[in-house]
Design brief:
Blueprint lengths: L15 H5 L28 E11 L4 E4 L5 H14 L5 E2 L7 E6 L12 E6 L2 E6 L2 H13 L9 E10 L5 E7 L7 H13 L4 E5 L1 E2 L2 E2 L8 H4 L3 E2 L3 E2 L6 E2 L4 E2 L4 H13 L3 E8 L4 H6 L27 H17 L4 E5 L6 H4 L2 H9 L5 H18 L3 E5 L12 E4 L4 H8 L4 E3 L2 H4 L3 E2 L11 E3 L2 H5 L10 H4 L2 E6 L9 H8 L2 H10 L7 H18 L11 E7 L2 E7 L6 E4 L10 E2 L4 E3 L3 E9 L2 E2 L4 E5 L8 E4 L31 E4 L3 E20 L12 E7 L6 E7 H6 L3 E19 L16 E9 L1
Parallel strand pairs: 2-3, 2-4, 4-6, 8-9, 8-23, 9-16, 16-17, 17-18, 18-19, 19-20, 20-23, 21-22
Antiparallel strand pairs: 1-7, 5-6, 5-7, 10-11, 12-15, 13-14, 24-25, 25-28, 26-27, 26-29, 29-30, 29-31, 32-34, 33-38, 34-37, 34-38, 35-36, 35-37
The structure holds zinc ion.
Zinc ion binds next to helix 10.
C-alpha cells in the first residue's frame, strides 16, 4: 500500500475508505456577517442547518430569560452559565414581558414518534427564541446558544443573528470511563458529565468493575468494597517493564453518591449505563468472594494490567450472587441497557473445572465458547425480567448471541457488522478510531499511553455506519462512543488531556454533521474553541499544533512529508539541531538519501507553538524499495502498509502502536525488490514481545535470497529459542551473497498456548524495520 496524494496526513492516520465515506451535511450559508463565516462559527458540533441573519442580538443586564417553568433546570442552567461566562446575572420570568429576552418554549408535538432532541434556535435583534418538543431539545438549543457567547466579563455581548434547525443523527452519543484501573472522584465524574452534555452527547458508560478494583457499593455483599476496592500496589511504567509500587490503592462510590450522580446526569439529559464485568475481568470480585470461582482461590485484587485466567464459575450460587448485584445496580440506574462486559474471558479454568465440564455436557453445549454464551443468556433472562436489556462487548457474539442483547464493537467494526446483520442493536467503539487511551500525537511528546495512534483527524473521519451494511441493517447502529481505559491514566487532569479535544471531533461524528472531506473547516472552528478550554482551565492536548509526518516511497527512495495546521509555519533541520525561527522553511517533501536526523516544529508569528518532533532515518540497501506482503497486517496496526518495514524508521519497542505492523494470527511473508543485484552480508529486523497485549515472538524467522524472484535460497534461520535470546533484535550476518530479492518469513506463534495471557486466542506478531546491508 502506498500513501499518496491528498489522503496523506500522517503515516498512521486517516485511510482512504473512511475519508471517502459519504456523510451528508446541509449547511445553508446565506450571508457572512459580523466576521462570522461558517468556518469560524464557534459551534461544535456544527448544527444540521444554519441560516445567517443580517443582524445581531445584544445581550445585556436588561435581558430576561423567559421560561414557561421558571424553575426548570434548563432555564437555571442558562442563567448560571451566562453568569459564569460574562458576569451578567439575568432574571428568569414565566410571564411574557416586552423587550429584550431569551425565550424558551416547549411545543406540544402533533405527531407521535417526534424527535425529543430536535430544537430550533433563532437569534435576531428582537431577541432569542428557542423552541423544542422537550426539555432535552431545549437543553441542546441552550448549549448551542451558549457557544455564541464568549468567555469574557462584559456588560454587553453581541451575538450573530442566525436561524438554526438542528437534531442529531445517532441516538447513542457516548463516552466511557474506566474507574477500576484508576479511581476518579465524584466531583470529576460530574465534570465528565458536564463535558458530555456540553457537546450534546447523551450517554456515559461507567466501567465500574474490573480485575483491579470493584468500585460500587453493593449492600448485600459488603466485602466487594471492603476487599475488592483495594489493591496492594499498582503497575508503574509500561506493561513491558513489569514494575510495581507497593502503595495501597482504593476507591469506591457509595450508593448515595451514585444516586446523586445519576440525578446530576438526568438533569443534563445524560443516561448513565453501568458496567458490571462478567464472566471475566472478575478478580476484584473473586478476591472478595472466592467461592464463585472454579478453583476456590484465594485471589488477590490485580496490581498489574492485562487479562487474568480466573473468572466466574457458572454455578447456581454464582448466578444468585450476580443477580443480587444486578438487582441493586438496576435499582440505582434507570438506563434501558445494563452493560455486562463479556470481553476477554479466558477459558482455561472452565476447561479444567469438573462443574463447568459437567454443565457443558448437561446443557448439550459444544465447548467453552458456548458455555460463555449460556452464561450471558442466563444473565440476560434475569435482566430482561427487570424490564432492562443487556449490552456486551463483541465477544458475546462467540458461541451465539443472547436473543435481546446489544453489542458494543471494540475489536474493530466486524463484531458490530455481524450483530447488525443478525438484527441486534450495536454501538460502535472500534479501537482504531474510538480508543482515547491511544496516543493522539507523537509518542515522544506525549504522556505514557497504552499504545496505538488515534489523532483527532482520525476520530473525525470515523463513520459509525460501515459500508458493509445495507440501509435496513444500518438502522441497528445506535451510534458510537469513545472509550477511556485508565491503566496509564492516574489523574483527572490526565483524563481531560486524553479526551480533549478528541471528544469535540467525536461529538460532531455522532451528531451526524462531521464532513471528513472538509476536516479543515472543523479544525478552524476547533482552534477558536481551544480558547474556551483555556478559560475553563481544561487540560487539553496541543497535539493539533504538532508537526505530523508521513513517509512515502519517491523516485529517490524515502520521502519525508511534514504537515501542520498551516504548513508554511513548519521549520526544520537535518543536522540534529533544534529548529528555531531561523531554520529552513518546509516547502515540499524531503528526500532522504542518507542516514540523518530531522527535527521540525510549528511556528506562528516567529513563536514556536508545538513541541519539536524528531525522526532518525537509517538508510540502507532496502530503504524505500518495493516490498510486498503475502498477508496484510491488522487494520489497527498497519495503516502505513508494507512500506512501514522499509521506510528507514525504526519502531520504538515500548510504543508499539505507531511504527510497527501487527499481524493477528498470520505469518509475515515479505519480499523486497532491491531493484538490482546487490552484494549483501547482513539483514536486521525487530520483532516484539508483550504478553499482556497478546503479542508473542514468532516461532521461526527465515531469510532467503533470489536473483530472479522465482528460486529462493535460504540464508539464515532463527529458532524460537534464538529469537528469545536475541530479545527480538534479529541480526543475521553471512558471507557476501548476491541478491536482487530478499524474502523474510516470520512464522506466527498461532494459537496462544495454555498458561499464557490470551491462551486460546490468536497471537499477535509485531514486526518493524528490515534493513539490508
Ligand atoms: Zn467452573
Amino acid at each position: 500500500m502506498q500513501l499518496r496524494g491528498i489522503f496523506i496526513f500522517t503515516k498512521f492516520s486517516v485511510n482512504k475508505q473512511t475519508l471517502m465515506t459519504k456523510i451528508f451535511l446541509s449547511i445553508f450559508l446565506f450571508l457572512s456577517f459580523l466576521g462570522y463565516s461558517q468556518e469560524n462559527l464557534p459551534l461544535i458540533p456544527i448544527p444540521k442547518q444554519i441560516e445567517f441573519v443580517n443582524e445581531f442580538f445584544e445581550l445585556d443586564k436588561s435581558t430576561v430569560i423567559l421560561s414557561q417553568d421558571s424553575n426548570s433546570f434548563e432555564a437555571l442552567f442558562l442563567k448560571e452559565t451566562i453568569k459564569l461566562k460574562t458576569g451578567l446575572d439575568l432574571p428568569i420570568k414565566s410571564t411574557y414581558t416586552k423587550g429584550n429576552s431569551i425565550q424558551l418554549s416547549i411545543q406540544i408535538p402533533d405527531t407521535i414518534g417526534f424527535d425529543r432532541e430536535k430544537y430550533e434556535l433563532s437569534i435576531s435583534k428582537k431577541g432569542v427564541q428557542l423552541l423544542s418538543f422537550s426539555n432535552q431539545g431545549l437543553f441542546y438549543g441552550i448549549q448551542t446558544f451558549l457557544q455564541f457567547i464568549p468567555f469574557q466579563k462584559s456588560d454587553k455581548v453581541k451575538t450573530q443573528g442566525v436561524s438554526i434547525s438542528d437534531s442529531p443523527k445517532f441516538k447513542w452519543r457516548g463516552m466511557h470511563l474506566d474507574v477500576s484501573r484508576h479511581f476518579f472522584s465524584i466531583d470529576f465524574i460530574k465534570k465528565y458529565i458536564d463535558y458530555i452534555a456540553m457537546y450534546k452527547m447523551n450517554t456515559f458508560h461507567w466501567h465500574l468493575t474490573d480485575d483491579q478494583g470493584w468500585r460500587i457499593e453493593i449492600k448485600k455483599y459488603p466485602k466487594l468494597t471492603e476487599i475488592g476496592a483495594w489493591r496492594d500496589g499498582s503497575m508503574v511504567g509500561h506493561y513491558n517493564e513489569q514494575r510495581f509500587d507497593t502503595l495501597r490503592y482504593s476507591g469506591f462510590y457509595t450508593q448515595e453518591e451514585i444516586k446523586e450522580v445519576v440525578k446530576y446526569a438526568q438533569q443534563r439529559h445524560v443516561t448513565i449505563v453501568p458496567e458490571i464485568e462478567m464472566p471475566g475481568h472478575a478478580l476484584a470480585a473473586l478476591a472478595s468472594y472466592p467461592e464463585f470461582s472454579c478453583t476456590g482461590g484465594p485471589f488477590e485484587v490485580a496490581k498489574g494490567w492485562g487479562v487474568f485466567e480466573d473468572v466466574f464459575c457458572p454455578k447456581d450460587e454464582t448466578f444468585v450472587f450476580l443477580e443480587n448485584i444486578l438487582s441493586e445496580v438496576i435499582d440505582l440506574f434507570p438506563s434501558k441497557y445494563i452493560h455486562i462486559g463479556g470481553d476477554e474471558s479466558p477459558k482455561v479454568r472452565w476447561k479444567n473445572c469438573a462443574h463447568c465440564q459437567s454443565l457443558i455436557k448437561k446443557e448439550g453445549l459444544k465447548d467453552e465458547h458456548e458455555l460463555q454464551s449460556y452464561f450471558i443468556q442466563r444473565i440476560e433472562k434475569f435482566v430482561n425480567t427487570k424490564g432492562r436489556k443487556i449490552m456486551g462487548w463483541d465477544e458475546i457474539l462467540e458461541g451465539g448471541l443472547a436473543p435481546n442483547a446489544a453489542v458494543m464493537s471494540w475489536r474493530g467494526t466486524e463484531g458490530g457488522i455481524a450483530a447488525a446483520k443478525q438484527k441486534h442493536f450495536v454501538v460502535m467503539s472500534p479501537g482504531s478510531h474510538c480508543y482515547f487511551d491511544h496516543y493522539q500525537g507523537d509518542p515522544k511528546n506525549e504522556p505514557l499511553a497504552f499504545g496505538g495512534y488515534t489523532p483527532i483527524e482520525k476520530v473525525y473521519a470515523f463513520n459509525p455506519i460501515p459500508n458493509e451494511l445495507s440501509i435496513e441493517e444500518a438502522v441497528y447502529i445506535l451510534g458510537a462512543q469513545a472509550n477511556v481505559w485508565t491503566e496509564y491514566i492516574e489523574t483527572s487532569n490526565h483524563v481531560e488531556y486524553m479526551i480533549m479535544p478528541r471528544m469535540a471531533a467525536l461529538s460532531e461524528v455522532v451528531w451526524g454533521t462531521a464532513n471528513a472531506s472538509d476536516y479543515k473547516n472543523f479544525e478552524n472552528r476547533l482552534i477558536d474553541h481551544l480558547d474556551f478550554y483555556e478559560k475553563m482551565g481544561i487540560n487539553y492536548s496541543k497535539a493539533i499544533y504538532e508537526v505530523t509526518t508521513a513517509v512515502s516511497s519517491g523516485k529517490n527512495g524515502v520521502e519525508f512529508i511534514l504537515k501542520a495546521v498551516n504548513p508554511s509555519g513548519i521549520r526544520f533541520t537535518t543536522d540534529g539541531s533544534q529548529p528555531t525561527n531561523k531554520a529552513m522553511i518546509y516547502t515540499s517533501p524531503i528526500s532522504i538519501t542518507k542516514s540523518c536526523t530531522i527535527k521540525a516544529a510549528y511556528f506562528e508569528n516567529e513563536k514556536q507553538k508545538s513541541n519539536s518532533i524528531e525522526q532518525t532515518f537509517n538508510i540502507n540497501k532496502s530503504s524505500g524499495k518495493k516490498i510486498t506482503l503475502e498477508h496484510q497486517p491488522h487494520e489497527n496496526y498497519g495503516i502505513g502498509g508494507s512500506f512501514t518495514l522499509v521506510d528507514g524508521m525504526k519502531g520504538n519497542p515500548s510504543k508499539f502502536g505507531r511504527d510497527w505492523l501487527g499481524f493477528s494470527g498470520k505469518d509475515v511473508v515479505a519480499t523486497i525488490d532491491l531493484n538490482k543485484i546487490e552484494t549483501i552480508s547482513k539483514i536486521k529486523l525487530n520483532v516484539l514481545k508483550s504478553k499482556g497485549s497478546w503479542i508473542y515472538y514468532p516461532k521461526e524467522i527465515e531469510f532467503l535470497h533470489s536473483e530472479d524472484g522465482n528460486r529462493y535460497t535460504s540464508i539464515k534461520k532463527f529458532s524460537e529459542v534464538e529469537i528469545e535470546n536475541l530479545k527480538g533484535n534479529i541480526e543475521g550476518i553471512f558471507k557476501n551473497t548476491q541478491a536482487k530479492y530478499i524474502k523474510i518469513i516470520a512464522k506466527n506463534l498461532g494459537v496462544i498456548p495454555d498458561g499464557n495471557p490470551g491462551a486460546g486466542s490468536k497471537a499477535w506478531l509485531f514486526i518493524d524495520e528490515i534493513s539490508v546491508e
